[in-house]
Amino acid sequence: MRNKLIVFAGMGAVATLTLTGCGEYLAAADVEASIEQDLTEEYSEDEFDVECDGDIDAEVGEQMTCELEWEDDMTETVEVTILEVDEDTSEVEFGFEVTHVDGEPITE
């Protein structure tokens, strides 16, 4: 199972979402869907589930934590960070990366 971690952690993935409504935060559900979409390029949707701990303010540097649970019960902690906010287009760029596996920090 370690190969999942290496591929995902190595991506240091970046995604962009468009704010809706008041435009002051990204909804956890939107962040989850974006991470899931990225992962389905590499893995089957049935292999994992992503849950984030709440909405995140759309401000550069803000962070949130998500849990990535694989079908084999391995859990990875995913840290999400807001990288850029374009107020003209309401687009928010964020990066995400695996930081822990089954509660243990990743060290390189």
UniProtKB/TrEMBL annotation:
Xref: PROSITE patterns: PROKAR_LIPOPROTEIN (PS51257)
InterPro entries given in the database record: DUF4333 (IPR025637)
Domain called DUF4333: residue spans: 19-86
Name of the featured protein: DUF4333 domain-containing protein
Pfam family of the protein (one): DUF4333
Source species of the chain: Nesterenkonia salmonea
Lineage: Bacteria, Bacillati, Actinomycetota, Actinomycetes, Micrococcales
